[in-house]
Amino acid sequence: MRFSLIGVLLVVFAAGGQAPPLHVAVGDSLAAGMGADPAGDGGFVSLLTDQNPTCDASPCSRLELVNLASPGATSDVVVATQLDRAVELISAHHREGGEVALLTVTVGGNDLFGSVFASCRRGPTEPCRQAAAVAFTSYLENLHRILGELRSAAGPETPIVTMTLYNPFRACLLADLAPAADTVLEGGMSPVSGFNDLIRIVAGSHGATVVETGRLLDTSDFVGGLDCIHPNAAGHEKLASAFAAALDG
After folding, report:
1. How far is 247 from 209, CA to CA, in rounded Å?
2. Would you tell me which of 169, 180, 211, 219 could form a disulfide with 163, CB atoms 3.0–4.6 Å apart?
3. Is the pLDDT of residue 5 over 70?
4. Nearest-CA neighbor of 178 among 167, 189, 192?
5. Residue with the larger pLDDT of the pair 115 and 77
């Protein structure tokens, strides 16, 4: 279930001041549920909320979702338009005596989709290295800020879960980009590390859990064709299960 900040406050009021535990999500179209059926509510963020893997008691309180993610968002966009709202929401919820049970962060694909993958189409050439260095540097700074401010607002015990990026190109009309994407995501352009290494390192420095998605999805789990990014309903279900398993672990 998707809630705005006003919606959450209305839930709190209706419950006589008992604030519900929240799942706050920031990110891009993946978190927004693109490719799912139905879009949005069928996405992995919503599925994860419904599963509520943060609860190990019985009965469990229903986890409410505040999904701030927006299609097309880069890490710059998350910093500019989502991060302050998330921090404000977390702080306000804590003031009401509520629990923020889960934070999820899914961003990075749009940082790479344009110039980097196109520049690296012919392998780790100098233009590829230069484009990757610019994108990696910007993303590194942004991810540090995103995870750092969320951690500061939520406290040391709140689970923050992010993910490495998968390579979707084998399932779409840009299949010839798949080898270049593998190189960008997992390395091979020394001295520039793979993009997913940045995610692993930065997440670890902020106590965030990383879901490894590189081998999680196969070609049947993507929308495919003209859509070269998004998982389909089956893919979103696999992502939700992987996030839940990471939280259980």
Report:
1. 8
2. 211
3. no
4. 167
5. 77
Number of structural domains in the chain:
1
Please, are residues 239 and 216 in contact by the beta-carbon 8 Å criterion? yes
Could you tell me the sign of the dihedral formed by the alpha carbons of 76, 25, 153, 199, in that order?
negative
User: What is the C-alpha separation between 191 and 248, in angstroms, rounded?
Assistant: 36
The pTM for the full model equals 0.90
Tokens of 75: 């890490």
For residue 225 the two structure tokens come to 């064709």
Using the structure block, give the residue that is written with the tokens 């968002």: 73
At 115, the amino acid letter reads S
Q: Which residues contact 26 (CB under 8 A, 6 or more apart)?
A: 68, 69, 78, 82, 83, 86, 103, 104, 105, 106, 107, 146, 150
Closest to 104 in 3D by CA, of 129, 122, 126, 86: 86
* Selected residue with higher pLDDT from 59 and 38: 38
pLDDT tens sequence across 177-202 = 999 999 999 986 655 589 999 999 99
User: What's 217's domain CATH number?
Assistant: 3.40.50.1110
Full domain range(s) for residue 58: 5-248
What length is written for the chain?
249
User: Among candidates 154, 3, 184, 161, which has minimal Cα distance to 87?
Assistant: 154
**Residue 20: helix, strand or coil by DSSP?**
coil
